[in-house]
Amino acid sequence: MIFSQLNDSGSLSAGERHYYRSARFNANAVKFHFDGVHETQSSYLSTPWPGESTWRGSLNMTPEHICDMVVDLDRKGIRVIAHCTGDGSSDLFLDAVAEARRLNGPNGMRHQCAHSTLLMEENLVRFNALDVTAEFSPVLWYPSDFSYARTKAGEERIKNIYNFKGVIDLGGNAVMGTDWPVANINPWVGFETMITRKNPWGEREETFYGSTISIEQALRVMTINGAWSMGIDDKAGSIEVGKSADLIVLDRNLFDLEPQGNMHNTQVDVTLIEGQLVWDRLEQFKACGLTAVWHKDEVPEFYDKM
Ligand SMILES: [Zn+2]
Question: What's this model's pTM, rounded to 2 decimal places?
């Protein structure tokens, strides 16, 4: 993905995507910051921020510019990843994708709403209708010292924060991005807290951090949903004959566990990519003469709790 604040509909990025492309790296996407963040109350909301009479946050581009840009990039076959932390900015993004569909027709493009921190209730159904992926980032979806400081949008909005359930229940595609280095790079922290919406370490007890999803739904979020959003679900994202043998073996059976406190520290014992052994944490395959690319028995320090 190429980060850009260009004013010319991403024409420079359109060229750069070919430069960075490789067999396993697809740079055919541009990320734009449509609005700001919650800490500075610059997320663009559909109504004023609590305690404000008119301030709704900041939009970095006009709605007209957003629409022109999304229509243009859609026509060029470049995926738009729109940073939208307020429910007003995602509303404008979905409007722009609707306009792209109207002008460009159904061309298979799968655009993405990044972070999707707050979504308007009436927009949940549009993710499915417009083939837009809702990407959620775990910074604020479970209670922590960090997330607590970001709940300025008010308790009413925070109740539905990171609305995985709302998007999934209406047939939309939801995925998770770690949002590292803002949040923990360990995806298992996000995985556990999708299912619990509770602090994995039992440090905080707040319960108004959105709706949980099932372990089966969380597994799809982490696998086939991500593949679909990238347009590679025909060859990756699930275990099927004819697909790439990209597999991990875990040190525990997630279905046997009480989720809170027992999933965020999951260890991956074995990783296969296209059938090749690339990670063998316990060197279990050594006796068979197979050596993994990585086989350390310790994870890096930054992988721990942040
Ligand atoms: Zn972002």
Answer: 0.90
